[in-house]
Amino acid sequence: MPSRKKDEPGFSRRTFLKTVGAGGVAAGVLGPAQTADAQGARAVGPGAVPIQLNINGRVHKLEVEPRVTLLDALRTRLDITGVKRVCDRGACGACTMIVDGKTAYSCSMLAIEAQGKTIRTVEGLVQGTVLHPVQEAFCDRDGLMCGFCTPGFVVAAAALLEQNPKPTIEQARKALDGNICRCGTYPRVLEAALNTGGRRA
Amino acid sequence: MPERQQPPAQPAPPQATTARWPAAADRVHIGKPIERLDGPDKAAGRAKYSYDIIRPGMLYGRLLNSPHPHARVRSIDLSAAEKLPGVRTALALKDPSKPETARVRYQGEEVAAVAATTEEIAGDAVRLIKVDYEVLPHLATVEQAMRPEAPQVFEKGNVTPPSLNEEGDVEAALKGSAHVVEGLYSTQVQTHTSLETHGGICEWNGDQLTAWVSTQAVHGTREGTARALGIPQSNVRVITQYMGGGFGSKLGGDLWTVICARLAKAANAPVKLMLDRKEEHLVTGNRPSAYARVRAAVDAQGKLTAIDAETWGTGGAGQGARFPMPYQVYVFPVRRQRHRDVYINAGPQRAFRAPGHPQSCFVTEIVMDELAERLRLDPLELRLRNLPPEADNAQWGRYFKMGAERIGWSKRHPTGDPASGPIKRGLGCAANRWSGQGVPRSRAECEIMPDGSVVTRVGTQDIGTGTRTLVAIVTAETLGLPIEGVRAEIGDTNYPWAPGSGGSVTAPSVASIVRVAADAARQQLFAKVAPTLNVADPTTLVARDGRVHVQGDPSKGVTWREACKLLGTEPINAPATWQQGLSSIGTSGVQFADVEVDIETGVTRVRRIVCVQDCGMILDKLTAESQCYGGIIMGLGFALFEHRILDRNTAQMVNPNMEWYLVPGMSDVPEIDVTLVDQPERGVVGIGEPPVISTAAAVGNAVANAIGVRVRSLPLTPDAVLNAIERERAGGTL
């Protein structure tokens, strides 16, 4: 693997993550067996590499540099833009996807790491033109204003209800605590999550 | 958009109008809870924001920002960046040959820009640009800037000469008063933290520029961009179908659109330039800080006598920080404000939801509670004794009583919760006002097609407030159609001019002008239909429930489709010009807070907020209530968490992200009880700003009521609360 110094182009947080992932720095903290595995791994990059992503039940083939996040791969390479980039460092939840059944911040996961996993986004909740009950509930309760945080909230709420169809207020609050809204839709987002499937009285 | 100062007791004089709002009993859509039209697209992830749009052959732009708060650019070397494969163009944004314009005056100021085939390459290229800076002395805090020996960093001085507003003899009035409260009060710098950052996409077709911009003002962006590029405004089209929040920070032609257009021109390809989160915090505006040294007085009967405020604050580099003192709700017959703006080397302020008001409200309302404390009077009673005469837009007395009932004010204990244990509870309240009137130059057009379809076009934009839905509601109401029977086209400079969405002017401007346009289109249709119904006077016709018929006789009429068929091949296209009387000026509102404070940890938890608010005639109950929730939650952030922190030595922002710049999250949000007071006779008044104004003040008063110690600054962080308690033990603040 070609090494880069910190002041050279291409060195970034993500390059660093890749370096860690591929051996190098990580070797010092791994046990002997893992070290052997890591050293045996074929280093990829820094140029674009072909990858396959299973998104919303469809396999997409694309070429990305290993430093590209899952979020950016979807948004800039596949034009899947329901997921939003807001903080880009795992603090706001606007990029929330469901990866192998669990919510994940896709800004904090590399696209190459997501290979072989089942990825679901807000677009995948829609059946044809029919909205998912969670999406219906957000519209019905006005759980959205500018809408930029909405896809992340919708995905987080849908994931919660798949695990726990009848959450308590506290459980719903906790499940949605990883998402930030600046317009202040929280009371109605919570209402939507708790009343999915029911209409406003 | 700055509020026009208007005394609360003077509503706009009604003028002769032709278009009127329908009588309350006749309203089909207006005032009902109507789901926003773009909800499904937003919830499904189909809505394309500027950040989401990909144009064929599009490049990605990135900026190089100054790491220094104050420096002169000696040279910019773009050569290494330009040679990087994938880079199409690079621009220097400072000209080192002109020393004055080559200065940077805050961290994050734009120095150079690149466009490349991917965002990652653009990022690499920016790191290859070599800039030689002559680092200059900087000012990181208001205190540093105000020292006599401070380096003069700004041409006109670091501190502006004081501006004076004076009414009556303050010194004499203070001397003759029964009680005088003195203190220093302050509020912090708050950043807008819009979720969609500033920026957009620029695409040239010959000399025609199309720009998809995350903006609150498509027309303002066209004007500003054309001017900066030196091209005719007619050559620029700005489109904003969806935008992810602005709160006042996206009101005009921004430098980033201009840079993006220049990159696109130089690269001969469309370019997307969106700021990153750090840039967003540093350079796209903020609510200025506010400091007030106040002396306020009251007579023995609880009538306010005088207030004197020495105020200052910083809006960063070269921008003002004015806020009115006192806040213009309570009547201080004698008053004086001496204000100075202080400049420091930090990103300049921009309008932020109710500019000046939350600061002014916080200081004034805390002072009100302190005066009540001196009088041993219920602070609510002191407020009721000092309100201006009641008017349509000055209903605080009534709302205070309604809110007091809902929060349980009668059970409020005097300052300092006597309960044992570390958790102390308290109640507080505060009032707000805002103008929120329509902008008379607004325009719109309504088109009725021969097949019965309808479209209303307005060059406004929906910034999350529900404007698109309001356009459809008013059109459908006017033409007697279901909401789905009309189209609302907005967010494009190809549509008739409407103001930028700031200052709560959008709903009154847009709803009024759409009513006029749809009414004009309706009159034209009635003129076509009247002969076939053997009706001599078309004005006796009405459009209701999908029919056009004689008033009072639905059987004597035709269906909407039949009516429109009479148009033959020619649609009706009715433009509209402003008519007075469909909107009016001024809102009033109050908020109450119920808090608990842990005096061992200093943590404040807001349990409940009660809000009583009017906004004239309610157009959409659902979206109007959402505005109240949203304002309160943003006000809660201002009260408890949000704080742009600059390192006092380096002037670098230490929290330019979303894990340390804290905006409220789900678990921070209390129970919120909103009462919207409908005033159907007043016409439309905006409600964007009012709900954000008094939350922090109500919370501040509730915290003091809980812990028995006054915290005179925001945010009410645990350390601020613990420090205040400590100071009280050491000598007292009350």
Summarize the SSE layout with pairings.
The complex is a heterodimer of chains A (201) and B (734).
Chain A: H1 13-21, H2 32-40, E1 49-55, E2 58-64, H3 70-77, E3 96-99, E4 102-105, E5 118-120, H4 133-140, H5 150-163, H6 169-175, H7 186-194
Parallel strand pairs in A: 1-5
Antiparallel strand pairs in A: 1-2, 3-4, 3-5
Helix pairs in contact in A: 4-7
Chain B: H1 39-43, E1 59-65, E2 71-77, H2 79-83, E3 87-92, E4 103-104, E5 110-116, H3 119-128, E6 130-135, H4 142-146, E7 163-167, H5 170-175, E8 179-187, E9 190-191, E10 199-205, E11 208-213, H6 218-229, E12 236-239, H7 255-267, E13 271-274, H8 277-283, E14 286-287, E15 290-298, E16 304-314, E17 334-342, H9 357-375, H10 379-385, H11 396-407, E18 423-434, E19 444-448, E20 454-457, H12 467-479, E21 486-489, H13 506-529, E22 541-544, E23 547-550, E24 553-559, H14 560-565, E25 572-576, E26 587-598, E27 604-614, H15 621-640, E28 671-677, H16 690-693, H17 695-707, H18 718-730
Helix pairs in contact in B: 6-7, 9-10, 9-17, 12-13, 15-17
How many extended strands of chain A?
5
CATH class of the domain at 49-121 in chain A equals Alpha Beta
What would CATH call the architecture of the domain at 49-121 in chain A? Roll
Distance between the termini of chain B: 38 Å
